[in-house]
Amino acid sequence: MTYETLLRVGASVFSHRGFRRASVAEICRRSRVANGTFYQYFPDKAQLFLTLIEQMTNQLQTRLESAVAPAAPAIEQLHTTLKTHLEFIGAHTALYRVFREAEFVQIEPPQQLYGRLARFYQKILQDGQNTKQLRRLDLETVSFSLIGMAEFIALRYIFWDCGLPPHVWETLRGLISYGISSERPCAPAGPSDFSPPPEEKIAEPSQGQRTRAKLLEAAEAEFGEKGFYEAQIVDITRRAGVAHGTFYTYFPSKEAIFVELVQEINKQLRARLRAAIAGLGDRRQIERAGFRAFFDFIKDHARAYRIVREAEFVGSPKNAAGRWYYERLAQGYVPALAHAMKVRQIRSSDPEALAYALMGIGHFIGLRWVLWERQAVPNSVFENMMDFILHGLLPT
Fold it and tell me: Would the pLDDT of 83 be above 60?
């Protein structure tokens, strides 16, 4: 009984405070047990945390196995798997929020969970391809694309909002089955509504601007290597080559420079994307160029992307820098997709749900190959991902 109570309370504390700020003392106080009792069950809070992740992984696997009917058409099995995954997140929001932080404690638990999910999808995909119910695409690429869709839709509609509206699910079904491309051929390349503005002459930076830039560059290195909670201001100033007190001339706290760094990374990525799609007039061409630029960006800025992912857990869940980062990307993405739907370049669906699903695909393909494997996304993976995005899984 005490063991289960510690797990339940621990999930709640980790969910609200995050792993770093949670304490054994608070877990014991809320569980109404002595601190010494805690250590009869767990050697430290990390083991409690990892036990929760393992339990959740097993529960999700069991739920998927019971929900999916092996005799059903392959596309329906995939739809059911995705829907069950999202329903599980909705029913276990606190526990899943704990899981999302797991890679900043130990990388193995998320790799294991996503690996098990991927293998579950791959079995369905392989059977569907063998029976010619599904198009032949790379199994691992498609499975991580599906996981990414679920994770980012959950982020937007479950973690940030109150639940999954029906139109979101219809958008996901359409994307999986048919992709985004309309039957119209790609239009000739022409001026894009989203081309970058003309370059302006940039004034020589002042001494203060140069110092601020050096602090941000040093902060990117420290946060990228150590994480937000382990990085220290003294290490940032040492790396930047400035006095410790100089830091506070520009930033009031470690969190303040972290937030500004996330904003700067967002700005750099959007500039890279604008440059990549300049002159393109068809959304399908824009998606291809945009995804390629995104993968190049995270390959060149692996530390920066680690910061972005951790940003979800710095600050309160409602005001975390990570939420701002993705919402800022979506502000430009959603209208662009809506315009492409209006001119019938891509299939009609909910543009916001589609934007987050596509961001999720890009994130998880980048996570799997760039961040886990420390390599560029292989061209074969890229082409299979784009084929899936444009045309879905059903044979034409």
Answer: yes
